[in-house]
Amino acid sequence: MTIKTKFQEKLDKATKKNNSLLCVGLDTDLEKLPQHLKAEKEPIFTFNKSIINATADVVCAYKLNIAFYEAYGLDSLKQLKKTIEYLHFSFGHIPIILDAKRADVPNTAKMYAKAMFEYWDADAVTILPFLGKDSVEPFFEYKDKSPIIIIKTSNKDASTFENIHTAEEVKKWMFPNIALFVGATDPEALKNVRTLFPKSPILTAGIGAQGASIEKAVTAGIDKNGNNLICNSSREIIYAGKDADFVEKACQKACEMRNIINSYR
């Protein structure tokens, strides 16, 4: 059983409005910003806002990887918060995914869930299932949110511990507001997870800089209506331009990827 969370409602709306399965990943690295932005008071937020404004009509979601903000300390985290607030205020129909990959014992997981869904105000958050059901239950208590359980990541050594057994066990937990993550580098895993979860949103990544086949990922991961697959691309889009042209280049690349993805729906 699945339920329509606010995350799912936003995802459906943005997918339909923008005719898109593309998610832009705001994995913003201060060192990679165009040189002219580095003198700004809030360079990360300025960059993020520019990318958002350039791509908001071609995406179904935005994903922010918290590690890229934690790495530069408190000031960077404040700019993450400001980015999320800007998205909610200016593009409230587009869901926000916080890529945090949290996992811990229940008492600590409760605090992680509170931080992700209350302080950061994300619509969805990535979490790890390897500590068992009780470690993720605090996230699923937020009924309007969608915890995204990591099933298979896109790195080359992912199969060491991650396999279809993970998805089969997670299926038994029967969380109605569940979403899943499966890397695009393993289309067979995507296909298997879609079979297990025919109506749940699936987030996938690896179609850009990591070189996964868009065709294989899309055909394996979409639901029966050609939806409910969130195809994330980060570096390929946000760093498409290196200088003052970064906004124009990001828009061009996002449009191009949206159209390629749609050609396989």
Write the layout of secondary structure elements.
Layout: H1 6-18, E1 22-25, H2 43-55, E2 61-65, H3 67-70, H4 74-90, E3 96-102, H5 106-119, E4 124-127, H6 133-140, E5 146-152, H7 164-173, E6 179-182, H8 187-196, E7 202-205, H9 214-221, E8 229-233, H10 235-238, H11 246-262
Parallel strand pairs: 1-2, 1-8, 2-3, 3-4, 4-5, 5-6, 6-7, 7-8
Strand order of the biggest β-sheet? 1-2-3-4-5-6-7-8
**Tally of alpha and pi helices:** 11
Beta strands, count: 8
The CATH topology label is: TIM Barrel
Q: How much of the sequence is in beta strands?
A: 15-25%
The CATH class turns out to be Alpha Beta
Question: What can be said about the biggest beta sheet?
Answer: 8 strands, parallel, barrel
Mean pLDDT: 95
Descriptive report:
With 265 residues, the protein is an alpha/beta fold. The chain has one domain: Aldolase class I (TIM Barrel, Alpha-Beta Barrel), CATH 3.20.20.70. Helix content is 45%, strand content 15%. The protein is built from eleven helices and eight strands. The protein has helices at 6-18, 43-55, 67-70, 74-90, 106-119, 133-140, 164-173, 187-196, 214-221, 235-238, 246-262; strands at 22-25, 61-65, 96-102, 124-127, 146-152, 179-182, 202-205, 229-233. It has an eight-stranded parallel barrel with strand order 1-2-3-4-5-6-7-8, surrounded by eight helices. Helix 9 links the parallel strand 7 and strand 8 (229-233). Helix 2 packs across helix 11, helix 5 runs parallel beside helix 6 and helix 7 (164-173) packs parallel to helix 8. The radius of gyration is 17 Å and the shape is globular. The model has no long low-confidence stretch (mean pLDDT 95).
